[in-house]
């Protein structure tokens, strides 16, 4: 290991190889403070060539690499394990915007760019880059691509995969593959781009991307609707889709419990409503380039029927940018409010929209029957079927009590998701935390195909070991895969 560190230091320079334990700490602990790993060093390359050379040096020493962006993930996919035989490769120094092509509506950027900076650069060029997350002020685009991030604008613009035209990737042997040509049509073989997006750094290290830009939508209308049930929310979603059509950019479901928690734990945050007494709320946004007065009138009309039919008790339409920002600010503070409350068991799930009301109703009841007193804080992107189904400790309990529940509680939730043809991970990935869940819910053939790709692109298992894919033998034994089926071993 000393020779590895010596070689890295000689190549990258002593300032760009961190070996002191206190200085390594921010890179080896995940954002939620659940996983605390170890690394023999942290490397900070500043170019694609430096990434490639670092990979070649590590490969020569047989040392694994954990690629890391902003380390804002929810599933500990960007931190090392406990053994300490990996290096962390932080891409935060690779933060250049290489090109903005307004005629082609593309932006080519390096993996270490902060998402918020990309939004602002696009805006300065008269364009829109619509990927938007609560952590956009600190997350890096490389991490967004590695997890196929979603966010609040998926309803109109799609996940990170749909926003990406090309990639530059350093492979496990140090070779560089690039498709940064800005082509929207290239039907000349397998789409390698999609293999790397969402692979959580286990197949290659994304160093740059060519991203889609869109026309700006200067006219935005935002509303917060108070609703009696999730059924009413899905009905309102259908009405908004019919009326607003492609102008509908966001439709967020928020439980009243979530907003009350924000009000309690973030007293400095301006709340959009004086009273938060409804069980459910929906935050809705439409954005377009049409005539402002007429569009506002149409936006108001969307809610008239649902109020008359008592499917919504109240609807507040923002009359100013400050009001709209207060609505979105309350939504974006939910994660911080949960963190302030203490540990919680998080589930990032995806379901057919039609199944969501029954899932929430029945799963809430099952949880209270088996774990009476636990508190549900459910919110998410109803428009694309993605819920953040969070369960917090009992009012009289503590974090240790919640931790003891976690295995059985998550099994209950994920089994309910499986029964309704859903997914245990919608936008956050698998990371280190959900590999056992992947074993349980992925079909053996899917796991074999995934491992076949992994073995081909990373035959020595040097890229982000322990993340996303479990080790081969345990899942075979657990799922009863026979030796005849071990086609990818």
UniProtKB/TrEMBL annotation:
MF annotations from Gene Ontology: catalytic activity; FAD binding
Domain FAD-binding PCMH-type residues, every copy: 35-216
One Pfam family it belongs to: FAD-oxidase_C
SUPFAM superfamilies per UniProt: FAD-binding/transporter-associated domain-like, FAD-linked oxidases, C-terminal domain
UniProt cross-references to InterPro entries, sorted A to Z: FAD-bd_oxidored_4_C, FAD-bd_PCMH, FAD-bd_PCMH-like_sf, FAD-bd_PCMH_sub1, FAD-bd_PCMH_sub2, FAD-linked_Oxase-like_C, FAD-oxidored/transferase_4, Oxid_FAD_bind_N
Stored PROSITE patterns: FAD_PCMH
Record GO biological process: respiratory electron transport chain
The keyword Acetylation is assigned to this record: no
UniProt keyword list: FAD, Flavoprotein
Family: Belongs to the FAD-binding oxidoreductase/transferase type 4 family.
Protein name stated in the entry: Hydroxyacid dehydrogenase
């Amino acid at each position: 290991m000393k020779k590895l560190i010596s070689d890295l230091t000689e190549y990258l320079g002593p300032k760009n190889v961190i070996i002191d334990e206190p200085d390594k700490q921010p890179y080896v602990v995940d954002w939620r403070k659940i996983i605390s790993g170890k690394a023999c060093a942290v490397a900070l390359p500043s170019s694609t060539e430096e990434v490639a050379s670092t990979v070649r040096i590590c490969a020569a020493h047989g040392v694994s690499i954990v690629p890391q962006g902003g380390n804002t993930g929810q599933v500990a996919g960007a931190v090392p394990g406990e053994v300490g035989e990996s290096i962390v490769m932080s891409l935060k120094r690779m933060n250049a915007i290489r090109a903005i092509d307004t005629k082609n509506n593309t932006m080519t950027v390096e993996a270490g760019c902060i998402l918020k900076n990309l939004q602002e650069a696009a805006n300065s060029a008269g364009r829109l880059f619509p990927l938007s997350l609560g952590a956009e002020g600190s997350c890096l685009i490389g991490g967004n691509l590695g997890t196929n991030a979603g966010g609040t604008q998926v309803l109109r613009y799609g996940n990170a995969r749909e926003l990406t035209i090309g990639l530059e990737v350093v492979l496990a042997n140090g070779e560089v593959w690039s498709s940064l040509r800005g082509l929207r049509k290239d039907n000349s073989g397998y789409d390698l781009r999609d293999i790397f997006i969402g692979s959580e750094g286990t197949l290659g290290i994304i160093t740059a991307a060519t991203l889609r830009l869109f026309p700006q939508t200067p006219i935005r209308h935002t509303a917060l609707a108070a609703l009696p049930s999730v059924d009413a929310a899905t009905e309102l979603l259908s009405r908004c889709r019919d009326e607003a059509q492609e102008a509908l950019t966001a439709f967020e479901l928020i439980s009243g419990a979530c907003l009350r928690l924000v009000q309690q734990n973030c007293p400095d945050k301006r709340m959009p409503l004086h009273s938060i007494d409804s069980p459910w709320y929906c935050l809705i946004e439409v954005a377009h380039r049409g005539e402002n007065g007429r569009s506002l009138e149409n936006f108001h009309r969307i809610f008239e029927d649902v109020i008359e039919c008592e499917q919504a008790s109240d609807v507040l339409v923002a009359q100013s940018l400050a009001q709209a920002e207060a609505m979105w600010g309350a939504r974006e503070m939910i994660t911080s409010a949960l963190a302030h409350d203490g540990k919680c068991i998080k589930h990032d799930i995806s379901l057919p929209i039609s199944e969501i009301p029954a899932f929430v109703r029945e799963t809430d009841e099952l949880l209270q029957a088996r774990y009476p007193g636990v508190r549900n804080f459910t919110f998410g992107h109803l428009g694309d079927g993605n819920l953040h189904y969070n369960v917090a400790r009992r009012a009289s309990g503590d974090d240790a009590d919640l931790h003891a529940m976690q295995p059985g509680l998550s099994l209950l939730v994920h089994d309910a998701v499986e029964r309704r043809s859903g997914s245990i991970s919608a936008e956050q990935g698998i990371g280190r935390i959900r590999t056992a869940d992947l074993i349980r819910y992925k079909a053996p053939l899917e796991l074999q195909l995934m491992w076949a790709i992994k073995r081909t692109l990373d035959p020595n298992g040097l890229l982000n070991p322990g993340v996303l894919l479990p080790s081969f033998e345990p899942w075979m034994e657990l799922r009863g895969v026979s030796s005849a089926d071990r086609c990818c071993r």
